[in-house]
Amino acid sequence: MNQARNTRQTLLLKIRDQYNDAAWEEFIAFYRPYVYRVIQNLEQIKFEDREDVIQEVILIAWKKLPDFDYQPQKGRFRSWLSVITHRTANNYYHKSKKASVFKSHLEAEELEKGLPPEIEKLCQQEWEKHVSEAAWTNISDKFEVKVLQAFQKLASGEKGEQVALELGLSRNSVYVYKKRVMAALQKEIAYLDEELR
């Protein structure tokens, strides 16, 4: 199933039904890696605790999403998910230290406060990485292996002449392939960022 082809509104409507297993699998398949990326950058969460925090974030989303009223003019869904992730991680950390400063549930006022600027920046960076990787996965089956290899080698800094020699292609072909893959990648990133944010 191509997770990128459902709009965020459609998926958010589907997962309001807590027992729609297919929708929840799709939600988890797309958003879990993003939640993990955010959590791995929060220094207070130990490596061995990350899965517990992720499960807690997903559980909170499962509980909250049936009543979630997505209003794009108020903010992005991923911002809501980022706030939940950050607050859950802090809550988990403070519970483990027996000094919880947060309430056990996330209230609307807390969610409206948003994130501290440094956490917002981290969440934005991780979102961009996550969307780029998802876009790469989505476009990879549209190109031959040599085309993708040419793009990756050029993107990693190799010279066009060297890439052409290694792959048995003309120098012009290498640059044409790079341009095609870049165009497809940028288009898919824009689509995902708009549809799944």
Describe the model.
With 197 residues, the chain is mainly alpha-helical. It folds into two domains: 3-130, Rna Polymerase Sigma Factor, Chain: A; 142-197, Orthogonal Bundle (Arc Repressor Mutant, subunit A). The protein has nine helices and no strands. The two termini are 19 Å apart. 22% of the residues are buried. Residues 31-97 form the RNA polymerase sigma-70 region domain.
Gist?
With 197 residues, the protein is mainly alpha-helical. Helix content is 69%, strand content 0%. It has 2 domains: 3-130, Rna Polymerase Sigma Factor, Chain: A; 142-197, Arc Repressor Mutant, subunit A, CATH 1.10.10.
Q: Keyphrases for this structure?
A:
elongated; 2 domains; Rna Polymerase Sigma Factor, Chain: A; Arc Repressor Mutant, subunit A; 197 residues
Summarize the SSE layout with pairings.
Blueprint: H1 8-14, H2 21-40, H3 50-64, H4 77-96, H5 108-113, H6 117-140, H7 145-155, H8 160-167, H9 171-195
- Which topology of the largest domain does CATH recognise? Rna Polymerase Sigma Factor, Chain: A
Average pLDDT taken over every residue:
82
Rg from Cα? 20 Å
How many beta-strand segments? 0
Helical percentage = 55-70%
CATH-wise, what's the superfamily of the largest domain?
Answer: RNA polymerase sigma factor, region 2, helix turn helix motif
| Inertia-based shape | elongated
Q: How much beta, percentage-wise?
A: under 5%
Termini Cα gap: 19 Å
